[in-house]
Amino acid sequence: MKSKFWFLVVIGIFVIAIGAGVWLTLPQNHDASPIAPPASEELDGPALFEDVTSRTGIDFAYRNGEEANLTTILESLGGGVAAFDYDGDDLIDLFFTGGGSLTDKMIRGRPGKLYKNLGGWMFQDVTDQTGLTSATNFYSHGVAVADFDCDGYRDLLVTGWKRVVLLHNIPNGSGGRTFEDVTSKAGIGEAQWATSAAWGDLDGDGFPDLYVCQYVDWSFENDPVCATTGIRDVCAPQRFKPIRHLLYRNKRDGTFENVTDQASLRPDGKGLGVVMLDLDADRKPEIYVANDASNNFLYRNLDGFRLEERGSLSGVATDDSGLYNGSMGVDAADFDGSGRPSLFVTNFQGEIHALYLNLGSHRFRHHSQAAGLGRFGRSYVGFGTAFTDFDGDGWEDLVVMNGHVLRYPAGSTYRQLPIFLHNERHEGRRQFRQLPGRGGAYFRSDHVGRGLAVADLDQDGWPDLIVSHQNDPVTILRNVAGDTLGAGNHRLMISLHGKNHRDLVGTTLSLEVDGRILTRFVKGGGSYLSQSDHHIDFGLGRVDHVGPLTVSWSYGRTEVFSNLKVDQDNEILEGSGKPQ
Amino acid sequence: MSRRSIRFLAVLATVGLIAVFAFVAYPYYWRSQSWNEIRTALDNRELKSGLELLERHLEYASDDLDARLAAAQTARRLDDFATADRHLKRFEADGGPRDVVILEKTLRQSQIGAIDGRAALRFCKEYPENPIVPFMLEAVTRGFLATVQPSRAEEAVSLWLDRKPTGAERSYALFLKGLACERQGKVPAAIESYRESISLKSDAHESWFALGQILTRESPGEAKTLFEKLQQTDYRPFEVKLGLARSLRQLGELDRAVELLEELNRLQPDSVAVMVELARVELDRGRLEYAESMLKNILGRVPNDRDALVQWSRCLRSLGRDAESQAVLEQLRKLDEELFRQQPTGSEKP
Hints:
Helix content of chain A: under 10%
Shape of chain A: globular
Order of helices and strands of chain B: HHHHHHHHHHHHHHHHHH
Strand order of the largest sheet of chain A: 19-18-17-16-34
Distance between the termini of chain A: 113 Å
Radius of gyration of chain B: 27 Å
Number of strands of chain A: 38
Largest interface: A-B, 40 and 50 residues
Oligomer: heterodimer
């Protein structure tokens, strides 16, 4: 019994010793590896946009010629879309640029497509009967729309490689409309590599003048081999020299005068995006240009084509580190209720998309981080963009279409997610937040997005989206926020008409809503290679009645309009004093 | 003698024998245990505690030349050159081989970039199996980084990684590779290296920190998580808090960023990095007067600080002082030109 006791004691000590040894030799309990990303901001809930492309009959894709496998910088830009009513039936039609091909190092064109809106989300291809097949059959990129001759119908300008084409909207002789190529007659055909363009009356004569961005001096004769990741890929724009942009004065007789020198346009911008609007409340439009890999430009309109470039001085040329960005798309809006338009610019991977807060008196401050735009990182390459109040809550939201230019980008992907950013209040100021679960299926899948336009295609009062991609079919996104995130919110739509169909870029509208002033701007250009519809749209939130609308007409006086109808389109004619 | 007395004496003799054995064997046992602890610490790259253990070991075994050399090497790897010198001198005085002393001095010179590491790199390429090679590659990589030759640093550390170091050594090599990539603008490769480094050694705090810094702009949400986790350790608390504040700014959480920065400013009122960041965030918040006084203070001390000048220009513009803002922009332009001219790209030429 005694020996058994001692045996157990020895065994017990042995076990304790082993246990203690094991315990002592165990590794220290380190914190879990910190490499897992933070919790997703994913939200559940019904979507804001529904992809209705298949219902529309629109089946078209911009082609950049990548099948030739030449990896030229020409392929990187992509194409745009214009949303405008070409035939005066009050339905917004759509034009897409076609791009081209590069087989055997021959730059060939591919016609764009014009789709007539038949209503009920049905569209008809009218490219042939409107004369656009041959007229747009060149390697194209961008499109801009304006009624350049003030005849009441909007005309088309298509940009691209070595060409700019002006297409006059004229009667077709049987009650419809067609387009006539008036480029030579108008005197605006000269271009080396035209990208985005913007129309706007810069001298107050009522006729829209024209700014055309140009990119770089690439050609097959100047086509270096670039391979950032060891495989041949598209060269960076830094490898090329910029081409001076072009400015044309509309001479009111169907012709234009090149006033690039007179206006002292800078020679050093690699232009990709441009927007015109009144940034300083003087009723004259300014020109803001997004340049790739160089400082962005801000041309202050001093009158009569005297422009003062003050991008750096105004704080809109570079980011908050004083460095230039690779800028592509651009838009402007009063996102913070200040009554002033701030500028938004989409940028390249590794950079933050830039929001320049308008402080008044031609001063801006880089405001991206303060507005929460740093939250979604810097792996995106942003192109088409638009400020619009998509959910009708009275605050303008943001949409950005992304997609890389490199086929094999390091640290990112060729196809990228588009981003919908909701305008919300945080820390006492307006900030943008992603609503990843709310954009709809399109916003949950990767694309190579380029052009983007906004238009109410079904006349339900809610702005829809039209997107052009690289080599993939275009997408039409119906805004269904009226049934989801914006259910119960009201809207107010304005169709603005100048006297004698004059151009209204530079006009500012201020609507009093429940003690708040909502401000909208008539803009030329904007987004990327694209043209949104000209209608003005106010989200009203739950408020179902509005106060007066103050219109500060460009180069004109101020008019106040009352008795506006909520949830309807209100026709506002300059000088009439009341909605039509 | 009674049987009881005999039993007592036998027990006493046994105890005595055990005591004598323990007295004789203990130093050997202790030395062996001590070396085990030291090796474990050094293998885990816990250099600071490794050096402490070595110094404790040398208190009792001051003639242990291996420990003396290890102490000199460890102190050098910790950039504690005074301690390294002390141990190396003693090593030499106690009869340590002269060539070993010269090699250790050479490694130190390589580590700080005082001598061209290319010859060492050639040696490592020619004799990859030589046991000194890992030490040499570590020192050379650090030297190339110190002298702004990141592509050569990447070459050296890649050679080190080719030797397939394991555990903490590999983790540290990956950290150095991350630094080399980051300084060449290879951000994705740097991020990958830091992540791999952390996956091999979950408490590789230098990799956490570097990853947090690089992700501050690329993925601020993740950077914030990293810095918050680092705050639970004692790793560079000041810099970690600054990193956290920077990531909060990227996330638009300016109020919390200011709280942290003000705390840091109270701790180190002379820190230019903190003051610039504070001015930046106050500018974001539109508190112009506060930003102005902060920036004046900074530029009074470091008139050519590029970051401060950029914020000063932003501040002046926001205050409506366009002419002054323009003058600062011009100063910046000249400074950028000068910095461009001074770029040490020439040092990377073969």
